[in-house]
């Protein structure tokens, strides 16, 4: 039995990866399967916190809100982020509790609506990189750029998506509550990277239009709770070099130096694999004796046992 602490980050796209359209029901099915794996990790003795992405989900909430503007005023971006935390957290709470109960593990599961302080002067505000919402063809993307003023970018060979600013997470506002809950429950926190807020000179917080990368948020959380492992779960089992090329090579492990070299070579696109690798690198740079793992939702247990996934270590 392990007694280690682990921060598990679930990819927003990965949570929408079921067959058919991205509905609440299709997400619930993926969450249900994923929570079986998280419950298995809990049964191995690990103490867990869950962070989730929200790119596809917050994008759709924003679209729905804009489309309904004739009926009721559109919600600001930060409120859409809070909504995404609420419904994804609700799905995880429901499914994880069920999966834990099945193995007689009576552990409370709770979602904390989490605000994340960002720097108003973060250069990310003038260089949008975070893909949100659905995927479009190049032609559809051009129309959206012209008609709605969206900025559209190609996303890892999967199509075009709207991109928005993604400032770096600086401080988790609710961290003390998360620490207090940690000992008695599985906490779902920093969803969608946290609701981005800036701190005004008078100490008030103010939501801003952005989507924080949940991989960086999960890394910050892992530092703050002194986690032993940062595990980032997405759609692919392993990180690759030469991704989607004939000479693609899937990596079982990367040292910090190797990862830095691959980043330099441009092996990982911004907004998808790059933040995962950078978050993993930051974690092992800060804690040279700890490890980060990147793998798929369904391989989490095997990856923890070192049987698959990409393990990132200091050396
Ligand atoms: N070098 C790479 N190795 C593995 N996957 C990559 C690589 N480059 C891009 N990708 C893509 O990045 C995706 C993960 O990013 P993304 O879908 O944004 O993550 P999330 O599941 O967190 O939403 C993978 O599923 C894969 O399609
Ligand atoms: N907020 C965030 O990082 O979402 P994704 O996991 O969907 O990219």
From TrEMBL:
GO molecular-function terms, A-Z: carbamate kinase activity
Protein name per Swiss-Prot or TrEMBL: Carbamate kinase
Gene Ontology cellular component annotations, sorted alphabetically: cytosol
Domain Aspartate/glutamate/uridylate kinase: 5-286
InterPro entries: AceGlu_kinase-like_sf, Asp/Glu/Uridylate_kinase, Carb_kinase
Catalytic activity annotation: hydrogencarbonate + NH4(+) + ATP = carbamoyl phosphate + ADP + H2O + H(+)
Key words, A-Z: Arginine metabolism, Kinase, Transferase
Protein's UniProt keywords contain Flavoprotein: no
Gene that this sequence comes from: arcC
Pathway named in the protein's UniProt entry: Metabolic intermediate metabolism; carbamoyl phosphate degradation; CO(2) and NH(3) from carbamoyl phosphate: step 1/1
Domain of life: Bacteria
NCBIfam families: arcC, PRK12352.1
UniProt xrefs under SUPFAM superfamilies: Carbamate kinase-like (SSF53633)
GO biological process terms on file: L-arginine deiminase pathway
Pfam families cross-referenced by the UniProt entry: AA_kinase (PF00696)
Family according to the record: Belongs to the carbamate kinase family.
């Amino acid at each position: 039995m392990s007694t280690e602490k682990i921060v598990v980050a679930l990819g927003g796209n990965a949570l929408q990866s079921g067959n058919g359209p991205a509905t609440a029901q299709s997400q619930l099915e993926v969450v249900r399967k994923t929570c079986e794996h998280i419950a298995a990790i809990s049964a191995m003795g690990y103490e867990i916190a869950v962070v989730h992405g929200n790119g596809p989900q917050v994008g759709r909430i924003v679209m729905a809100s804009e489309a309904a503007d004739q009926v009721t005023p559109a919600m600001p971006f930060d409120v859409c982020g809070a909504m995404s935390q609420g419904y994804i957290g609700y799905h995880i709470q429901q499914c994880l509790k069920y999966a834990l109960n099945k193995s007689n593990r009576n552990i409370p599961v709770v979602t904390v609506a989490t605000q994340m302080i960002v720097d108003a002067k973060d250069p990310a505000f003038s260089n949008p990189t975070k893909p949100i919402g659905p995927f479009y063809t190049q032609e559809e993307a051009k129309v959206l750029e012209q008609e709605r003023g969206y900025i559209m970018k190609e996303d890892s060979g999967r199509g075009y998506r709207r991109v928005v600013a993604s400032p770096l997470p600086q401080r988790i506002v609710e961290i003390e509550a998360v620490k207090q809950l940690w000992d008695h429950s599985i906490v779902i926190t920093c969803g969608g990277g946290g609701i981005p807020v800036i701190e005004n000179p008078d100490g008030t917080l103010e939501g801003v239009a952005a989507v924080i990368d949940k991989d960086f948020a999960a890394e910050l959380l892992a530092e703050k709770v002194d986690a032993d492992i940062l595990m980032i779960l997405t759609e692919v089992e392993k990180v690759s070099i030469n991704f989607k090329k004939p000479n693609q090579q899937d990596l079982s492990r990367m040292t910090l130096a190797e990862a830095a070299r691959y980043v330099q070579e441009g092996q990982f696109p911004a907004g998808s694999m790059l933040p995962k690798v950078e978050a993993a690198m930051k974690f092992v740079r800060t804690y040279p004796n700890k490890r980060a793992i990147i793998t798929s939702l369904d391989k989490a247990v095997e990856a923890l046992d070192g049987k698959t996934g990409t393990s990132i270590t200091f050396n």
